[in-house]
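ok trying this again, last paste got cut off
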Amino acid sequence: LTLKEGLTVFRDQQFSADMMAAQCTSAEAAASARAVKRINDVRVLRTAQFAEDAGPMAHPIRPDAYQEINNFYTVTVYEKGAEVIRMLHTLAGERGFRRGIDLYFQRHDGQAVTCDDFMAAIADANGLDLSQFGRWYSQAGTPRVSITSRWDAQHHEFYLHIEQSCPPTPGQAHKQPFQIPLALGLVGPDGRDLPLTAADEATQRHLRASDIPGSVLIDLRDARLTLRFGKVHVQPVVSAARGFSAPIIIEIDINDEQLEHLASYDSDPFNRWEASHRLALGCIRDVMGGASARDRCAALIRVWARTLDDGALDPAYKDLVLSLPAEGYIAEQIDIIDPLALRRARQAVRSLIATSLDERWRSCVEKLTDQGPWQGNTQAIGRRALRNNALSWWVEGGTPEAAKYAQAQFETAHNMTDRMGALTALMRVSGPVRQQALNRFESDYAQEPLVMDKWFSIQASAHRLPDDPAVLTQVLTLLRHPAFSIRNPNKVRALITTFCTQNLAEFHAPDGSGHVFWADQVLALDAINPQVAARLARALDRWRRYTPELQHSMQQSLHRVSGHAGLSRDVAEIVSKALADPA
C-alpha cells in the first residue's frame, strides 16, 4: 500500500513542482516555485502526520498488523510514505534515482511488487547500501535529530555533533538508528554559503554529493556522529535539513539573531522560510509563557518587513513567509496543550504584527490589485495569494479603510479566490458587515454544493470576537441548514471535522461542550458511514496531551463512545487505542 500510494504522492509532488517551475522566467523564480510546493507539502506532514506518529495510532508506513484496514489509509502511509521515497531520491541523486526507477520497471513491470523490491532496484542501480534504510518501513515515530556545533577560530575548523533518537510508539518501545539523508550548509556573515571541506577521513566517509547548491549530504546512520570541517575562516550559521531532506524534527541551539540571518540570506528557500517560521513559533511560545509580544517579536517584525520590501522574492513565496504557524502545529511543539492560552498568545503576536506593518500591508494590497482579466498562471496565482494574505493582515490592524477595502473587494471580485480572500478578512470584523457578507455569499452560491462547503468551513473555523457567542452555537445552527447533510462526507468534513480539528480553542471549550458535540456526531456518523466516523474520532486520540481539566472531559466522551452498543470496528479501534494505557 505505501509503495503504491507513497510513490504516487511523491510523483504528484514532483510533477506539480515541475509544472509550477516551468512557468517561471528565471532560475531563481523556478527555485522559489519549487519551494512553495515543498513548503505546502511539509506543512501538511508536520501538522497531521507528525501528530499521528506521536499518538496512539502511530504505525510504520508498512504496518505488520491491523484491526481494521480502513483505518490504515492514513497520512503516515501516504505522506510519510512519499517522504521515504523522496529520501531515496535524495540519497541516489536525480540521475541515480532515474536509473533506479528504470531498473525497477525493467525487473517488475506487470508484477505485484514489494517495498523491498523497490529499494533493491534503487540500491543495485547505484551501488548503494540501503540495508539500514529499510527501518523506515518497519519503525514508527518521527526521529529527532539534535545538532550542536563549535567553531575553532584558531585552527579554522568547524565541528558538528549530531545525535538521533526516536521516542517509543505503541508496540515499539526501542528504536534502532535510521539512515537519514541530512542536507546541510554553512552560511557566512556575508550571507554566502561557505565551502564544506572534510578535515579528516572519518568525516569524508559520511559525506555525499548533494543536488542542493552550496550543501553537502550527510549520510547519517549512527546514533551519534561528530564531523570536522576545515578551512572555515569565519563563524558560520548552520542551515540544517535543507529542502526538508528527511521527515525528522531538528533540534538545534540557534538564537533569534542567527534565525534572522538565515531568514534574510539562506540560499535554500525552504530553510529561509523555516527560519522565519521558527522565529514566529518562538515568539508565540514565549508569549504563552508570559513574555511581552512587543519585547519578544522585534526580530520577526524586521524579517517580515524586509520580506515585504524585497521585490526579487516571488509573491507566492512571500505569502508563505508572511503566515504564522497554524495552531495545530504550535500545539505539537508544547508539552501541555492549553488551546485558549495558545490562541491568546498567537493573537497577541498577530495583532502586533498587523499594526506594526500596517502601511506595508496597505501598500502591498494596492500594488497587487489586478485590474485586468483573470489569469490562471503561477505568477497570477501567487499575486492573488499574497494580496489576500496582506488584506487579511491589513484588516486585522483595525483601520476602517481596510475593512471598507475588503468589503468592496467582496462585492466586486470576479473570481472565487478574491471573493473568499475578502470574506476571510471580513470574518475578523465585528458588527453587521461580517454577517452581511456571509448572507450574500450564501444567497449567491446556494445552488453550488462545493462552494457552500467553503461557506460551512469558514464559519466552523472562525475565531470568536468580543461579544460573539461560542462558535459551537453557530455550528449547531448550521447542522440544520438545507445545504447540509450528515450523509454527505464532504459536508461533514466541511463543517463538523473542520470545527473539531481546526478550531482548537472553540472545540476544546472549558465547559466540555465541544467534546459532547464530538461524541454526538461520531455516534450519529457511525450508524451511517463508519469510515467517516473513524476519521472524526481521531480528533480526541491525543487527549493525554491537554490540561488536566480538558483531559477529564475528553476521557468522558471517549468512554461514552467506547461503551456504545453496536459500535463499528472502525471507530472501536480508534477509541480503544486512545483509551489504552500508553505504557
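PB: full thing came through this time. Strands lie at 144-152, 157-165, 180-187, 197-198, 207-208, 216-220, 224-230, 237-240, 249-252.
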